[in-house]
Design goal:
Elements: H1 2-34, E1 36-40, E2 46-50, E3 56-59, H2 62-68, E4 75-78, H3 80-84, H4 90-94, H5 96-100, E5 103-104, H6 116-122, E6 126-130, H7 134-144, E7 148-151, H8 159-172, H9 175-196, E8 206-210, E9 222-225, H10 228-232, E10 236-237, E11 246-249, H11 252-258, E12 262-265, H12 270-279, H13 281-285, H14 288-291, E13 295-297, H15 308-322, H16 332-344, H17 349-354
Parallel strand pairs: 3-4, 3-6, 4-5, 6-7, 8-10, 8-12, 12-13
Antiparallel strand pairs: 1-2, 9-11
Helix pairs in contact: 8-9, 9-15, 15-16
Length: 366
Amino acid sequence: MKKTFTIFLIMVLMMSLAACGGQDDSGTQDKQAGESYTITDMLGREVEIPADVNTIAAVNSAARFITYAGAADKLVGVTDLDKKGEPGMPYAYVNRESFADLASTGSGGSEDTTYAEELVTLAPDLIFAYTSDTAALDELSRQTGIPVVGLYATDMFAEDFLGSLTLVGSVMGTEEQADKVAEAIRGWQKDLSDRTKDIAEEDKPTVYMGGMGYRGPHGFEGTCALYPPFAAINAKNVVDETGQSGALLIDLEKVTVWDPEIIFVNPSNMYLINEDYEKNSAFYDNLTAVKEGKLYSQVSYNYNSTNMEIAIADAYYAGSIIYPEAFSDVDFNEKAEEIFTTMLGCEYLDVLDEAGIGFGRLTIGE
């Protein structure tokens, strides 16, 4: 009887082990076959993606967000413009050595063309794209057979920007870095607002932003209503009186009427302003801000879409100039490097200075 019972136990154990072994093999095979799950991207599209994403490609200017979220090492393809690594695109500059060796996924820039065939050959696990064109994303996914995740941001402090960071972090397993950046951005936004929100309108100097580049370079007439760095510090931007929003060209006679107390200029386009000065020096020399030497830089943040770290640094620099008392405890250089280090992983002021597009006082005609 005892012998029979022992044999029975052995048979049960063997059946159990066989069953367990089969379950493990099945689970391993399922994962190797490519487990997947569904996410909702920043354009509201449901996208089925692999559970393990090891290689990614970036089209449009998505490599910027991937850099902020700490996943640039997973990139196997970026755009031609990304690969140029120019100082005006900090995310591309800090990755210039690694980006140079990657495959090309598109031309990049305002006339961007995506290289679908190259993406098929490259075969990344996932494509990140920065655009609001849902149809284009769906078509790219259809052409390549690769899941395409849409990212987008409307402003340096917008929830869709922070959501894009969080999404990349979640997909790539870099939540810690993505959350760190998002938390820092919220902190900078609050700090800028808290320092300036209670300053009375009559105590605010009037300001103007010139040399704003959009769809190409512009001289002093290139400006911006509701200019984000000014809006972040509740500045009195004279261009807001137009009732418009975004980049525009203004009649210089209107600037004469406004006669702003402080003028900021994009240093990248100073050459155009200096060329105009040679023909129209009287206009500039009669402006109060020019006569009093209150002309300062605002580093262009619109290069292959918005370089958010520069836009935030612009806000701090403008705040320190417009409201010196409110920012008396802020060392701008330290704050700027804090922003760059948090978002890019390194300091960046020297790069801007060496490229001739840094922060500081400017002089027209030199």
